[in-house]
Amino acid sequence: MTDASLPYLTPRFAHADAPSLPLYVVASDALADLAGQIGPEAAAWLTVTGFKGDLGEVRLLPGAGGALVGAVAGFGTPKARRRLRFGLVKAVAALPAGAWRIEGGLSRAERAEVALGWLLTQYRFGRYRSAKEGGLALLACPDGVDAARMIAMARGEFLTRDLINTPAQDMGPGELEAAFADLGGRFGAAVTVVRGDDLLAQGFPMVHAVGRASPRAPRIMEMRWGSAGPALTLVGKGVCFDTGGLNLKPSSGMNLMKKDMGGAATVMGLAQMIMELGLAVRLRVIVPAVENVVAGNALKPKDILTSRKGLTVEVNDTDAEGRLILGDALAWAGEEPCDLLVSMATLTGAARVAVGPDLAPYYCDDAGIVAALEAGAVAGCDPVWRLPFHDAYEAVIEPGIADLDNAPGFGFAGSITAALFLRRFADHPRYAHFDIYGHTPSDAPGRPKGAVGQGARALLHALPAMLGL
């Protein structure tokens, strides 16, 4: 097992002075133009081997005496590139270790996508593996691409993946707090934590109620960084494991629940990007961290909680606990002014049914924020999709016996009703909520099976427009 410090790996480009081999990138409709770059013999070699220029297809180029002199990678068709994000970096697996440089007429945006995707392919979760990885094919940062920004985005993503991938035995509330404190310490941020029964004394009753049954004490953590600029507050759901509580999940529903702190992991990854890049913001990060387990003192169905905001909540499903802890956290966030409030959570299965695992649905009523996020999603290769705060469903979350219902028996629009629940606590005109999944079901270019960040890069690219940076 490796050292448990996070992140476990550091993404990197090839050293600028390192000798590199050319990787010629060619679209499938431009093969005829390639001979002028690689020479007629190499072009004939491609023809003989049946190279078609499909997206991510690779041919190594032999030189005199069989020496490797370069490679050709297919860039496919525009349709193929739209269908497979980071598709070109499928080529990385076929390249020998060493330094490579991109040759070909890619646009600046395409070079940036290739650079980011190449960095993301370096991720491995090796904490529990004895086998050692071999050498890597490293990319020389392409011309016109900001290497520091690419590295910062990849490092933030690696942190998010490491946190989510770590099993609950080693990533409970205490370990998440340690990672949170380590992140703050690396950038000189101030970190405060409220734990256990102190949550009741300091006004976080719903965080306490959800986490009190675990021997690993619940807590709420706050990080502050930056002294000038607009105020940005990030809130992330930190349910380190979710059994469902007394409304116990079946085993199939529990298998991925180490990822139920994916919202916390994602805002921490985004915070690392922001701090590493030195953005001119006053950053505040809030993470409530709990385990939702079964014990004699566990939260019970039909219990009624009085939240930090004063709103009462009838608990109609102890497996809808994430919105409870976020309610207290968002209320705390709203007690001081900020220019933008964002929450991120692995909140509902309904969101997955609606948009699948690849898209991060989000909710926001501010047209400027929406426009910035749509552009940021394209620039960051980080797809998001807007869903509505549909006001007509407000009545669904009002049970009559209390102000709010944490799990209405409506049977429809589960992600929307959860977002409406959170909006009652956020109560901020510039609020965006992301209902993320945090998991890739199968290997994809730049996204190995397992944990993945969603929405963070879109937000990072959108911040200048959203906050006037």
From TrEMBL:
Keyword Lipid metabolism among record annotations: no
Statement: the UniProt record of this protein carries the keyword Ribosomal protein: no
Matching CDD domains: Peptidase_M17 (cd00433)
GO MF assignments: aminopeptidase activity
M17 aminopeptidase N-terminal domain mapped to chain residues: 22-132
SUPFAM superfamilies according to UniProt: Macro domain-like, Zn-dependent exopeptidases
Pfam family, one: Peptidase_M17_N_1
Superkingdom field: Bacteria
Cytosol aminopeptidase domain location: 159-459
Alphabetical UniProt keywords: Aminopeptidase, Hydrolase, Manganese, Protease
Xref: Gene3D superfamilies: Leucine Aminopeptidase, subunit E, domain 1 (3.40.220.10), Zn peptidases (3.40.630.10)
Protein family (similarity comment): Belongs to the peptidase M17 family.
Protein name as catalogued: Leucyl aminopeptidase family protein
Source organism of the structure: Paragemmobacter ruber
